[in-house]
Amino acid sequence: MAPAEMEKRLSSMGAEQSPSLTGRWTGVYFYPVDPELNPDDTMPATPFMAELTEVSGIITGVTQERDMFSGADAPPISATLDGQYFDGELVFTKTPHGGGQIHTIDYMGAVSADGNAIAGRWIIYGVWSGVFRMQRSVVATTQKQTQEQIA
Q1: How many other CB atoms sit within 10 Å of the CB of residue 145?
Q2: Distance CA 65, CA 59 (A)
Q3: Rounded distance, CA 57 to CA 62, Å?
Q4: What is the pTM of this model?
Q5: pLDDT tens for residues 79-100?
Q6: Element (H, E) at 143
């Protein structure tokens, strides 16, 4: 489908009423218990930072995360993102650049009504899948400041 046609279709279906996902995000993804790859559930939750850009429901972006398996001196792993956002659902493909990762990872998540949180699943087809969460960086900072003020 041509970009102009996709934009027209998204606009006619109300996509312009959804909150924009453009901005900085923090998140974490989790590895599943797996008899071969993670039998003792010892793989660490992996935090990441993301910068998303949304134009008419088309998502592009980048992520950066620590390489949790190559030691403290390992360079961070960056990745590019390409996907779509429509009717409260975000779907994107993450293509890592580094860390020995050779697979693309597909993500599917539900966006909160206020557009400040995303939760869903990631999958490497034929290998395994797990869950992830993302939150706007501004929201995470505000919540932390509020908790500190209460304490």
Answers
A1: 10
A2: 19
A3: 16
A4: 0.77
A5: 999 999 999 999 999 999 987 7
A6: helix 137-150
